[in-house]
Amino acid sequence: MRFGFSYVGLIYLIMLMVPNLIWTKNKPKDYDRYARNENRILLFLERTGEVLVSVVVLVFRDFDLRAWTPWSLWLTASFLLMILYELYWIRYFGSGKTMRDQYRRFCGFPVAGATLPVTAFLLLGIYGLNVWLIIAVVILGIGHIGIHLRHEKDVNETGSKG
Predict the structure, then answer these.
(1) Within a domain: residue 107?
(2) What SS3 string covers 113-151?
């Protein structure tokens, strides 16, 4: 592991944060009703993972581009997942912005807004052979995906259109 600023990490964080900032002004109808019931342990893991991933991805140069090898396919797959994440948000922002819209499958991915970036960062950690990012992503994934799977379940159980 090599300390130093990662421009690839910064690009990934920008790709992650821009749609989320836009989302704060375009939340699904009734989102706050679902958010009130979030499991506190999952929420703690999500927030802890967010901070850890954000720091680790910026302070290690392991994620930056290097000479092409078959190992570079990890980075390629990771970046393709981030592109799908951006496309997921484009679909959501063009929709009616309901809970069903947010949790509708995208390209076969369940809860795509959670699974795509978590998987992309996990693959980035594998590409960089960075155990700290992998650990941080696992913590984030348990919390973030867990919360959103619960939201999806609640939406499906209530038959909510909002």
Answers:
(1) yes
(2) HHHHHHHHHHHHHHHCCCHHHHHHHHHHHHHHHHHHHHH
Classified as helix, coil or strand, 72 is helix
Residue 100 lies in a domain: yes
pLDDT value, residue 29: 86
Q: What is the pTM of this model?
A: 0.94
Cα torsion 119, 125, 127, 131 to 10°: value is -140
Instruction: Enter the tokens of residue 76.
Output: 């390629």
Name residues of the chain where pLDDT drops below 70: 159-162
Give yes or no for a contact between 25 and 78, defined as CB atoms under 8 angstroms apart: no
Q: Is residue 73 part of a domain?
A: yes
Let me know if residue 2 belongs to a domain. Answer: no
For residue 109, the cross-strand partners are 106
Cα–Cα distance list, 65 to 20, 62, 127 (Å): 26, 8, 10
Q: Are 59 and 5 in contact (CB under 8 A)?
A: yes
Length in residues, the chain: 162
Domain membership of residue 144 as a residue range:
7-158
Task: Quote the number of domains for the chain.
Answer: 1
